[in-house]
Amino acid sequence: QEEFRELLELLVRRARTYVPSLAALEEFHLSLSQCVVLRYHWIDPFVRSLRERLASFHRFFCVADQVKVYTNQNKTRTFIGLEVSAGHFQLLELVSEVDRVLQEFDLPTFYKDPSFHISLAWCVGDLSGRLEGQCLRELQDIVDGFEDSALLLRVQWEQIRCKSGNKYFSFPLR
């Protein structure tokens, strides 16, 4: 949405006063698993199993309105994201089913206490110290003061997607 892009631009512009190398993301998602490597012959059975496990889930809303700073496990990248403040329980239920499929294939499951979020911008290195504190407060103020942010940051989950290589698989929620 155009309004979301406006909000993103305001946030990135402010954050760049603290970390000039910050780059806005073009596509947005919320992860329900770690990135894993699927062997080619596992793709179809993996997707089939996911489809079966996710078939009973209904559409739901979540709200992602809390600005937070993240780093990847290796501390080689830093991200600014919007953490989910409502809808956490439904996301945990989805992760539980995705984890069961991952276990079927002996793959690593999701993080123990996940912080569900949508990444907005990133930079190379661990620059979390520059973005936390004053910068984070300023970014949260922008979100809180943005016109229609309550509606804008409310997301209806209608489908779950799985990406494997350059293929996308979609699992509609009921």
UniProtKB/TrEMBL annotation:
* PANTHER family in UniProt: U6 SNRNA PHOSPHODIESTERASE 1
Give me the Gene Ontology terms describing cellular component.
Answer: nucleus
- The protein's name is U6 snRNA phosphodiesterase 1
Q: Which GO terms describe its biological process?
A: U6 snRNA 3'-end processing
Q: Which SUPFAM superfamilies match?
A: LigT-like (SSF55144)
Entry keywords, A to Z = Hydrolase, Lyase, Nuclease, Nucleus
Provide the gene name from the record: Usb1
Cross-referenced Gene3D superfamilies: Cyclic phosphodiesterase
Q: What's the domain of life for this entry?
A: Eukaryota
**Transmembrane intervals:** none
One annotated GO molecular function: lyase activity
Organism, by scientific name, is: Fregata magnificens
Q: Which function does this protein serve?
A: 3'-5' RNA exonuclease that trims the 3' end of oligo(U) and oligo(A) tracts of the pre-U6 small nuclear RNA (snRNA) molecule, leading to the formation of a mature U6 snRNA 3' end-terminated with a 2',3'-cyclic phosphate. Participates in the U6 snRNA 3' end processing that prevents U6 snRNA degradation. In addition also removes uridines from the 3' end of U6atac snRNA and possibly the vault RNA VTRNA1-1.
Q: What is catalysed by this protein?
A: a 3'-end uridylyl-adenosine-RNA = a 3'-end 2',3'-cyclophospho-uridine-RNA + adenosine; a 3'-end uridylyl-uridine-RNA = a 3'-end 2',3'-cyclophospho-uridine-RNA + uridine
